[in-house]
Amino acid sequence: MLTGGKYIGRIVEIVYEDGKENVAKQRILIYGIRGSKVMVFDVEKQSFRTLRLQCILSAQLVRSRVNMD
Predict the structure, then answer these.
(1) Which contacts qualify for 18-24: CB closer than 8 Å, 24 or more apart?
(2) Neighbouring-strand partners of residue 24
(3) What CATH number is attached to the domain comprising 45?
(4) In the list 3, 40, 47, 69, which could disulfide-bond 28, CB 3.0-4.6 Å?
(5) C-alpha–C-alpha distance, residues 25 and 60, integer Å
(6) Domain assignment present for 36
(7) Separation of alpha carbons 24 and 69, rounded Å
(8) Which structural domain, as residue segments, surrounds residue 50?
(9) How many CB atoms within 10 Å of residue 34?
(10) Exposure pattern of 50-69 as b/e (b: 16+ CB <10 Å)?
(11) Is residue 1 one of the residues assigned to a domain?
(12) 2 inside domain
């Protein structure tokens, strides 16, 4: 789903299931993917987070590129 680095630097809307089986829709800016972890900036909460790749149920590109400088 989020493989190959094509989503890095892009805003993506995801459906995410946390460890308590709560499902939420989030808009995130993807900074990097390392193994099973995704480093993101949560657009709504204005905070950095690390998500588990296997908990992302779906992803849809919202905006093509963001300047991360």
Answers:
(1) 18/55, 19/55, 23/57
(2) 16
(3) 2.30.30
(4) 40
(5) 11
(6) yes
(7) 29
(8) 11-63
(9) 9
(10) ebeeeebeebeeeeeeeeee
(11) no
(12) no
Domain for residue 51, yes or no?
yes
Tokens of 54: 């296997």
CA nearest to 41, candidates 10, 17, 3, 5: 10
- Residues pairing with 63 in the sheet: 11
Strand partners, 16: 24, 56
- Token readout for 51 is 């998500």
SS3 at position 57 = strand
Q: pTM of the predicted model, to two decimals?
A: 0.81
> Would you state the structure tokens that stand for residue 33, as one six-digit string?
């993917």
